[in-house]
Amino acid sequence: MNENERPQVVAAEARYRATLASLDDGVISTDTQGRIDSLNSVAARMAGWTEAEALSRSCDAVVRLLDQATRAVVECPIARVLRDPQTVTLRQRHRARR
After folding, report:
1. Helical (H) or strand (E) element with 74
2. Within a domain: residue 13?
3. Which has more confidence, 92 or 58?
4. Is the Cβ–Cβ distance between 97 and 66 less than 8 Å?
5. Which domain holds residue 28?
6. How far apart are CA 24 and CA 29, in angstroms?
7. What is the overall mean pLDDT for the chain?
8. Residue 74 CA: distances (Å) to CA of 31, 53, 63, 66, 77
9. What is the dihedral of CA 12, 17, 19, 22, to 10 degrees?
10. How many domains would you assign to the chain?
11. Radius of gyration of the chain (CA)
12. Order of strands across the sheet with 73-74?
């Protein structure tokens, strides 16, 4: 990155962080290994972790979903997408488990 591009990258990062912070939905992003590299406060609250605690942990360690009817643990949707890159829709009702 050259010196002329740096202010644009910093501004884009600030917009990204402000957008995540303003959402009412939980948002988590990971690296290609499924380790969390960012999450907003809604996602942290739902998972029962602080952002600092969740960063660099695997999504399966932080995101615990239970099928509402059977109480069975549901695989983290992020792990599914990383294994098989396609849109994942959770059709059943799930609950986050802390």
Report:
1. strand 73-74
2. yes
3. 58
4. yes
5. 6-96
6. 16
7. 85
8. 21, 22, 10, 5, 8
9. -160
10. 1
11. 15
12. 73-74, 65-67, 94-96
User: How far, in Å, CA of 35 to CA of 2, rounded?
Assistant: 29
Q: From CA 49, how far away is CA 51, in angstroms rounded? A: 6
Q: Which CA distances in Å does 15 have to 10, 19, 22, 53, 98?
A: 9, 6, 11, 24, 30
Q: Is residue 50 part of a domain?
A: yes
In angstroms, rounded to a whole number, what is the distance separating the alpha carbons of residues 47 and 60? 11
pTM of the predicted protein model: 0.72
Q: Is residue 26 part of a domain?
A: yes
3-state secondary structure of 28: strand
Does residue 1 form part of some domain? no
CA 77 – CA 74 distance, rounded (Å)? 8
CATH code of 43's domain:
3.30.450
The torsion angles phi and psi of 37, rounded to 5 degrees, stand at -115, -10
Percent of the chain scoring above 90 in pLDDT: 24
